[in-house]
Amino acid sequence: MSEDDRPRQSVGIAEVAALAGVSTATVSRALSNPEKLRAPTLARVADAVRRTGYTPNVAARSLRGRRTMVVLVVVPDIGNPFFADVLQGIDDELSRHGYGLLIGNLARVRAKEAEILEIVQAGQVDGVILLNGRVPEDRGRTLTELGIPLVAICEAIPGAAFPQVEVRNREAAQAAVQHLVSLGHRRIAYLAGPDGNILERDRRAGFCAGLAHAGIAVSAASFLAGDFSFRAGTDAAAAFLAMADRPTALFAANDEMAIGFLKAVRDAGLRIPGDVSIVGFDGIAFADYVDPVLTTFRQPRHALGVTGAGLLVKVMNGTPVAPEEACQRLPVELLVRASSGPPRGGRQPP
Amino acid sequence: MSEDDRPRQSVGIAEVAALAGVSTATVSRALSNPEKLRAPTLARVADAVRRTGYTPNVAARSLRGRRTMVVLVVVPDIGNPFFADVLQGIDDELSRHGYGLLIGNLARVRAKEAEILEIVQAGQVDGVILLNGRVPEDRGRTLTELGIPLVAICEAIPGAAFPQVEVRNREAAQAAVQHLVSLGHRRIAYLAGPDGNILERDRRAGFCAGLAHAGIAVSAASFLAGDFSFRAGTDAAAAFLAMADRPTALFAANDEMAIGFLKAVRDAGLRIPGDVSIVGFDGIAFADYVDPVLTTFRQPRHALGVTGAGLLVKVMNGTPVAPEEACQRLPVELLVRASSGPPRGGRQPP
DNA sequence: CTGAAAGCGCTTACAG
DNA sequence: CTGAAAGCGCTTACAG
Q: Phi and psi of B12, rounded to 5°?
């Protein structure tokens, strides 16, 4: 049957083979398994490839080779700069192994999980890295059922059977409380992340553990609702300012909220850290440029990406993953800056 | 010849065809050109597709159909949240037309342009959107030679023969100067972007035009070097503070630098806007949370993405693009906030 | 170490 | 409106 007449790919493997005086099989091997060829043959092919400017067609290679050399990264919100460094780490490690990277942005829309399933079902990728804290699903079907190599990073998925890499959220949150207590604070508020989020759960648990450890009744602490956004921080500030017996310190479950809160209470005339100390979480770039500079925890973002990608490569290659590797928890670093300090002695000025 | 024994795709088009009692051609048509089928046939196929959970293999479809339904977006730096909204706009428009999106992050590394060329040469995408202000090239070969549909947005590429969408950088920068002049400023500094960058060139030109328009000698203005980073802002602040006859206002070529500058001069004890007014460019989210809130220009980021993607779809479809569409320049909006105000009358305090 | 040939899973021009 | 069959451009098990 005749074919359509759209322009075809400029150079095909056949042309390279003809120019080099070898079969297409040999050209293919020269590109994928050069060690299987004799040096002179390899050289002739390499020369022909260079002269023709040949690049193998990706679709054909994927179809025939049954692997795409592409990994899907599921991100809850590409707009959050936090993920940029993680993605960079993933990309660095993946490209070392010859893999490309497809970004699936959920944009915080649950319905987009169906698209993730489709991409995988369509055979578009060899593995998936989840940064979104849950296994995507669509009408009862879940990603795990599809039998594709999987890894979760940043936001852990409790009980999952695949490798995971996260940071010590609980320990860090506890350390935040310890830091504030050591400065003399006893009335400490917690500005929460969205309900059900694993980071929120772990950081809240660490916060409570920190209080308990310091002999402070959790019932005496204030819990402010939030959702990780700047806006949640300013909203929480309004609630905070209206409180009768205001805490002298606040630990926010992330930096955006800490910054929103900081801005709003400062605008209201409170001094930081005199009237209220603030501690955030994440160590986003912006935290260095607020006034006062935010005390926070620096996450090993790049390392999270590299580690997670490395694990996925192992799974995709069928390399066994040691149990201690399969559930890693990286440390975070407390950066003590100007936003936290001793509470003003005695009462607050009118 | 026998094949390898890796697990194959769960459901193929043949199974669906068998279940529906039609040929594979009909299944294919049902999915791509449903209007060519009779309703009952379509219904039978649709039912079979649903029951089998069939999703067409992307590699096979691309190989045979000679189109991938994927667009490559070349981003200079994925870590810059500015691009997140633009990408969202692109994605919104592209997905309306059935296209997926592959992100090529240059990470400000020139050598990565070679990867862009490879992706295109490998037939991996049907079109390219450039956000990086130049046509990627590698050892003499440029992307334009590859004959792939192309569009540039955000950062224009002068003299290019493909459609472009940018904002009125020159006019906006001029308006920034007008704003400052109207407040009473006469000594105004410009904090520049990286050399050779088109945004830098246009904004600088607008700055100079604004001065000229106000009857201020350009030679009397101060030009501080920068590169669009927070750090460049703090570095420029050091230079600014050391100046003998300090300007009373500064226009930064982007918000990051404006914020870095703001933070550093504030730490040095200057009051804003009393001692120095500051105007940025872009309207990043963070600009709302610095103290004082930054006067800046809000870019129509989402619209930039939507417009650019829409143009690319036209080019890919062979739809003619009207000349006035082919070179669009969207307006930006000046947000007057607390970082700009009248200069303090008389001398500055010691 | 190298080649001939099958076949990955689809789409589409042709025929009916 | 639907089907039979070619073929997209590669890779790989088999044979030599």
A: -110, 170
Show the tokens assigned to A195.
């309900």
**End-to-end alpha-carbon separation of chain B, Å?**
89
Q: CA of B308 vs C1' of D7, distance in Å?
A: 35
Task: Identify which of B218, B307, B229 has the alpha carbon closest to the alpha carbon of residue B263.
Answer: B229
DSSP B179-202: HHHHTT--SEEEE---TT-HHHHH
HSE-CB of B344 using CA atoms within 13 angstroms = 13
Instruction: State the amino acid at position A9 in one-letter form.
Output: Q
List the B38 CA – C15 C1' distance (angstroms): 19
Query: In Å, what is the CA distance from A289 to each residue of A87, A230, A294, B229, B260?
Result: 23, 15, 8, 12, 7
Which ranges of B242-295 would DSSP assign to H, the alpha helix? 255-267
Q: Which residue of A has its CA nearest to B138?
A: A53
- Work out the number of other CB atoms within 10 angstroms of the CB of residue B228: 27
Q: Which of B63, B85, B145 best probes binding to A when mutated, by most A CB atoms within 10 angstroms?
A: B63
User: Closest by alpha carbon to A101, among B173, B324, B249, B103?
Assistant: B103
- DSSP string of A186-231? --EEEE---TT-HHHHHHHHHHHHHHHHTT--GGGSEEE---SSHH
Interface contact flag, A88 B102, Cβ < 8 Å: no
- Identity of the residue in B55, B80, B105 whose CB atom sits nearest the CB atom of A118: B55
Residue pLDDT, tens place only, A162-196: 999 999 999 999 999 999 999 999 999 999 999 99
CA distance linking residue B228 with residue A236, whole number of Å: 32
A36 CA, D15 C1': separation in Å? 17
Q: Which is nearest to A175 in space by CA: A217, A195, A203?
A: A203
* Residue A10: count of CB within 10 angstroms of its CB: 14
Are A123 and B147 a contacting pair at CB < 8 A? no
Q: How far is residue A267's CA from residue A269's CA, in Å, rounded to a whole number? A: 5
Nearest-nucleotide field for B6 (CA, C1')? C8
Q: Give this prediction's pTM.
A: 0.91
Distance from CA of B188 to the nearest CA of A (A): 23
Residue B254 in contact with residue B279, Cβ under 8 Å? no
Can you tell me the distance from the alpha carbon of A299 to that of A332, in angstroms, rounded to the nearest whole number?
A: 5
Q: Give residue-wise pLDDT tens across range A17-56.
A: 999 999 999 999 999 999 989 999 999 999 999 999 999 9
Q: Is the CB of A122 under 7 A from strand C?
A: no
Question: In this model, does residue A136 exceed pLDDT 50?
Answer: yes
Residues 179-198 of A with CB under 7 A from strand C: none
